[in-house]
Amino acid sequence: MLLSALLIKRKSFLGRCFHLGKSILNPISEDVVFRAICFNLKQRRWSFLEKNLPSLTNAIASRVLCEFQNSPQLALEFYNWVGDKKSVLHSLESSCSVIHVLVNSRRYDDALSLMGNLMTVNGLSPLEVLEALNNSYGICESSPAVFDALVRACTQIGATVGAYEVIMKLQIEGCCVTIHAWNNFLSHLIKVNEIHRFWMVYKKMVSYGYMENVNTFNLVVHALCKDCKLQEAMSVFYRILKSGIWPNAVTFNMMVDGACKMGDMDLALMLVRKMEIMSAGSIKPNSVTYNSLIDGFCKIGRIAVAEELRNEMMKIDIEPNVRTYATMIEGYSRAGFLEEALRLCDEMVERGLLPNSVVYNSIMHWLYKEGDVDGASLVFTDMSDKQIPLDKFTCSILTRGFLQKWLYNQSS
Questions:
Q1: Residue pLDDT, tens place only, 112-153
Q2: Which parts are the PPR repeats (predicted)?
């Protein structure tokens, strides 16, 4: 009888420990709590977990997160649930653990968001986040992709210096980021218009022995085009062809856009006409290609050629988009053909495309230029009715238009 009673009590005790249904006065070992949480988490028994939050520590939370490598959604739910119930447990350790899990499962957006919050909300420096990721790297069986993700997170929040510090720190420690992280950082430098720094970083990357890929070459071409060094960009372009790395549509479009921006429309057209031949038939012009050409010809006043190109793209089943129409409308308006510009506005609506602020701004600007204040007011009314957001150019155009109308009324 005594033995039976002891067995019953022991079974009851283990059951309570395993399910964490009730708080236990005696200390519970970390392993028991860990196993119990994992078991109940798999069943999503949040009520059982909530009753035993006092037993949950930072170390246990991190272990649980790493345990659910193959269930990233559940790991993220647990992380968020813990934060809602007991925010103090959202330590750097647990945050890094869930980041490793998310990166390993290729849920990069969620991982980048958490990294960004650690730096912007929690005020941690990129190097502090890097150190924490390094500390939990082995426990969570992570991959170098987590360091690439940290560089991307830095560039997303505008931490240019931080991103570079992370790359250099890893380089010194012999745990290098991949070419993808370098490309991301180089792309960021172009976006923030730090072209001089771009070339310094690019040369350093090459000196470390990194093998450039097509994305790297595209960034080099882009940087040269921004510096109006079209001939050098062409040299790089031919170097790509000779290196055995096939250029992609982005490469060609950057070259075409660079030529158009510099007014070399002959080169731009040549690139488009020979695109298929130079890519061994793998690449054809797309809407981005034609939009660059149309924009280039509109800017030099050759609106008829731009119209021919628009017709050409439709013949080969490339649908004009809002940018195509916005460019054409601006081109016609600039050339003094406002009726044609308005006709295109109607056409794009018939095709199911909603004019954006660029389209409306262009029409209003040129109507005011011609002195048609009432016409511009009607266009603005239509813009308001369609709830198109106003931008700074809209406000500037309206201010000049109202001033023009006021001066006209004063003089009459």
A1: 999 999 999 989 999 999 999 999 898 888 899 999 999 999
A2: 213-247, 248-282, 286-320, 321-355, 356-390
* 91 CB-near residues (< 8 Å, 6+ apart): 58, 61, 62
Q: What SS3 state is found at 312? A: helix
C-alpha neighbours within 13 Å on the C-beta side of residue 369:
12
Segment 351-364, tens digit of pLDDT: 999 988 888 888 88
Residue 215: predicted pLDDT: 94
Non-local (6+) Cβ contacts of 383 within 8 A are: 357, 360, 390, 394
According to the model, what pLDDT value does residue 109 have?
A: 95
Average pLDDT of the residues in 78-89: 75
Backbone angles phi, psi at 257, to 5 degrees: -65, -40
Q: Are 341 and 362 in contact (CB under 8 A)?
A: yes
How far, in Å, CA of 353 to CA of 2, rounded? 83
Phi, psi angle pair for 371, to nearest 5°: 85, 5
Q: What CA–CA distances, in Å, run from 368 to 375, 387, 393?
A: 8, 21, 14
Q: Using CA atoms, how far apart are residues 293 and 310, in angstroms rounded to an integer?
A: 10
The answer to whether residues 102 and 69 touch, using CB atoms and an 8 Å cutoff, is no
Q: Which of 43, 47, 21, 18 is nearest to 33 (CA)?
A: 18
DSSP 114-178: HHHHHHHTS---HHHHHHHHHHHHTTTT--THHHHHHHHHHHHTT-HHHHHHHHHHHHHHT----
Report the C-alpha gap between 383 and 375 in whole angstroms: 13
Q: Which residue has the tokens 């011609």?
A: 370
Q: Which residues of 276-311 are buried (b: 16+ CB within 10 A; e: fewer)?
A: eebbeeebebeebbbbbbbbbbbbeebbebbbebbe
pLDDT greater than 70 at residue 24: no
Q: Please say whether the beta carbons of 137 and 97 come within 8 A.
A: no
CB 249 within 8 A of CB 278: no
For residues 257 and 262, what is the distance between their CA atoms, to the nearest angstrom?
A: 9
Q: Residue 226: exposed, middle, or buried by beta-carbon count in 10 A (0-12, 13-18, 19+)?
A: middle
The stretch 367-373 carries a mean pLDDT of: 83
Residues 286 and 303: beta-carbon distance below 8 Å = no
